[in-house]
């Protein structure tokens, strides 16, 4: 919740669900806590590489949102 800065309920496992979708979409990252996503791109990546990373992450988040977050 952007207004209250409240995290997602632990039972919803939002971070882990996004991580699983991202893996299906060809992106690997780690979840820290329950809903913090840790992305560590290599220092030599190009702007195009970052665009791909962001597109895949956005797609993964949208897929989890479409499934519903309890």
> Which word captures the global form?
globular
Structural class of the helix and strand makeup?
Answer: mainly alpha
Which parts are unreliable, with pLDDT below 50 for 5 consecutive residues or more?
A: none
Strand content: 5-15%
* Rg value: 13 Å
Instruction: Quote the average pLDDT.
Output: 89
- How are the strands of the largest sheet arranged? 1-2
Treating each run of at least 4 consecutive H or I residues as one helix, how many helices?
A: 2
**What summary fits the major beta sheet?**
2 strands, antiparallel
How would you spell out the order of helices and strands? HEEH
Number of strands: 2
How far from one another are the termini? 13 Å
Helix content: 40-55%
Features:
9% strand, single chain, mainly alpha, 70 residues, 46% helix, 2 helices
Gist of the model:
The protein is mainly alpha-helical. The chain has helices spanning 14-24, 47-67, and strands at residues 30-32, 36-38.
Per-chain topology:
Layout: H1 14-24, E1 30-32, E2 36-38, H2 47-67
Antiparallel strand pairs: 1-2
Helix pairs in contact: 1-2
